């Protein structure tokens, strides 16, 4: 069942990429609220990278599945007082949006682990949300991250407003792609633009996403 959904999702990514003449993006399987058993079965079908939104939930799952050697991404809002735990359990943090978090993650990344991969979360169009930095703050954050040997700057992440009007979503994805190109021109290690979810990934891929974050289309609807 999960294996079939994975195959179908990977095929949709390929189709969307081909239609838009873009490279096929990486698939991040969003496993928030899903059991460790469900993650393990998707892993046995070949999926390697998983995204979690809550530090405590991720702590339990990463511990239970440690022997599988999976790659774990933090994609939820990260409070500074949880940064020490997050720095120990994740391979990537996609939601860095302030200097305080940069310093806290760098300080807490265990020395025996690879540098922690970092995406800067940009608040591209949501006036109401306090999460994500403004586009004008990206470069200062990027420099701070590059100044930390325990962190590796990899790119940008966004959760645009889910406008019913597809053209409004497209504009947000295009603005992210422009910011991403500017960042990559100044920072050669930058290679990841994380955007697009179950209901809008073809559009995100058409506009240049290199990683899509998909939950519902893979695991089915989440329990409320
Ligand atoms: C839950 C979540 C997703 C996945 O959403 P689906 O609509 O279930 O694919 C992607 N990104 C973030 C940041 C999320 O919180």
Textual characterization of the structure:
Belongs to the pyridoxal phosphate-binding protein YggS/PROSC family. The structure is a single chain. With 224 residues, this protein is an alpha/beta fold. The protein has one domain: Alpha-Beta Barrel (TIM Barrel), CATH 3.20.20. Helices cover 42% and strands 17% of the residues. It has nine helices and eight strands. It has helices spanning 2-19, 36-44, 55-64, 83-89, 99-108, 138-146, 166-186, 201-206, 216-219; strands at residues 26-30, 49-52, 71-74, 92-96, 116-121, 151-157, 192-194, 211-214. It has an eight-stranded parallel β-sheet with strand order 7-6-5-4-3-2-1-8. The longest helix has 21 residues, at 166-186. Pyridoxal-5'-phosphate (PLP) binds next to strand 8 and helix 9.
Could you list some keywords that capture this structure?
TIM Barrel, binds pyridoxal-5'-phosphate, 8-stranded parallel beta sheet, 224 residues, 42% helix, 17% strand, alpha/beta
CATH class: Alpha Beta
Quick check: average pLDDT? 96
CATH homologous superfamily title: Alanine racemase
Q: Could you tell me the strand content as a percent range?
A: 15-25%
Share of residues in helices = 40-55%
As laid out across the biggest beta sheet, the strand order is: 7-6-5-4-3-2-1-8
Low-confidence stretches: none
Number of domains as seen in the coordinates: 1
How many individual helices? Answer: 9
| Overall form | globular
């Amino acid at each position: 069942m999960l294996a079939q959904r994975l195959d179908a999702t990977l095929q949709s990514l390929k189709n969307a990429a081909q239609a838009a003449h873009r490279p096929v993006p990486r698939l991040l399987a969003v496993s928030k609220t899903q059991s460790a058993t469900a993650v393990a079965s998707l892993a046995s079908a070949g999926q390697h990278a998983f995204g979690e939104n809550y530090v405590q939930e991720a702590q339990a799952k990463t511990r239970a599945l440690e022997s599988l050697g999976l790659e774990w991404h933090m994609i939820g809002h990260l409070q500074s007082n949880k940064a020490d735990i997050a720095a120990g359990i994740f391979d990537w943090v996609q939601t860095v949006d302030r200097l305080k978090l940069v310093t806290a993650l760098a300080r807490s990344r265990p020395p025996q682990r690879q540098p922690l991969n970092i995406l800067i979360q940009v608040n591209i169009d949501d006036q109401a949300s306090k999460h994500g930095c403004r586009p004008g703050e990206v470069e200062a954050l990027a420099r701070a991250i590059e100044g930390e040997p325990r962190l590796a700057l990899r790119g940008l992440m966004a959760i645009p407003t889910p406008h019913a009007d597809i053209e409004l979503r497209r504009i947000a994805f295009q603005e992210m792609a422009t910011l991403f190109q500017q960042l990559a021109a100044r920072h050669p290690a930058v290679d990841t633009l994380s955007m697009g979810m179950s209901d809008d990934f073809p559009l995100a891929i058409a506009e240049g996403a290199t990683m899509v974050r998909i939950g519902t289309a893979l695991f089915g609807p989440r329990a409320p």
